[in-house]
Write a structure and sequence with these properties.
The protein has 2 domains: about 210 residues, Response regulator (Rossmann fold, 3-Layer(aba) Sandwich); about 170 residues, Rossmann fold (3-Layer(aba) Sandwich). The strands form 4 sheets. The protein has a 6-stranded parallel beta sheet, with helices on both faces. Helix 5 runs parallel beside helix 6. It is of the alpha/beta class and about 425 residues long. It contains 13 helices and 15 strands. Helix 6 links the parallel strand 6 and strand 7.
Amino acid sequence: MRKKLWNFIVPILVVASILLDACAPAPAAPAASTEATAAPATDTSATAAPAADAGSIQIPEVEQGKFNVAFVYVGPIGDGGWTYAHNEGRLYLENAMSDTVHTAYLENVPEGADAERVIRNLARAGFNAIFTTSFGFMDSTATVAEEFPDTYFVHISGFKKNDTNFANLFGSMESMKYLVGMVAGARAAADGKKKIGYIAPFPIPEVVRLGNAISLGMRKTCPDCVLDIRWIFTWFDPTTERQAAESLIQSGADVVITGADTTGPVQAADEAGVYSVGYDSRNACDTAPKTCLTVPYWNWGPVYTKVVKEMMDKSFKPDDIYLDADSGLLGLLGFMEGQTPNAAIPADAVTQVKETLAKMDAGQMTRFDVFSGPINDNKGKEIVPAGSKLTQSDLEGIDATVAEQTGRPACTYCMSWLAEGVSPDAELPKQ
């Protein structure tokens, strides 16, 4: 979905964003038996082929007599975040079903035409199922799925599917981000500061709704706080992520929340004596355990295992699979069973977050409740009126064009706005 034109405009936009802003003064938590075991960043239990481009990628071999599952990663398994968490899930799957399932992975796969060639070659190699784990792999996955009707395909974070062999899979991370906003707001209020920073990868509905959820949660514990955003136009770029964090810190952010793939912003915040919130993997706070307040993370292992079992017994039905907080897919570091909240989180906020998380785990507060009206945008215009809630199409930004392509309902309050609490001067970049 990312345009090649971005290769030219993105550096300009990133630099402009940083310079301009710098100049301004689980059901109840999932049981231990369902939590995936942390995967070493240098794991070699499955065949992996680092890649600079599709032509240099060596496609791993299938294992005869087993159900073969391939994972396509946009970053390295050692990123400490998004890809690390998916690889953690892959290891959980292989450990749980080692007698019947073989897994392999490819890391650092570029989005676009290269990804399509990689996915096609994995299907040709005989893999029974292929999981593609970045938003920009969506169109490539859809194309190859039509060519290989006997192979299963699951795309993470997108909205396309078919009725035979291609599903999309994601979860309501916006619920965890709402809780993150509560944590960050409480910390800023306790420090007598009013600014929180958010590092946003791309101006797509997924990233926008997560940022909006942060802002809505922040206003519960710090009504006067402002969410300052840096758009970095990349999922994985340690240098750019760190620079965005440093820019937010220089502009006065008391807590830096990252939405990108690495732990660079967590480290940068710690070095500056500023609080942070990591993302994606439960180990994202390991480099700064005192100043990293929490991490909203993914627990892919049990979900991957369930899906593969259904594929093997032929009960799997391709669908728009979007799991809520009560599914066990999502976690919030320090607040799940057997975990202890960071001592830097104010005690009253710990209580509020635990109470809200308990409602989410019990199914009493869903992602739609997070986005219930009235909600204004960051300019003060009413977006969601009182008594209304966003729908799934709203959350995913399914506009009329996409609705016609996918057969899904079109959005009413499409996720193309920034919520109240985001800096009034902020605008959504144009794609």
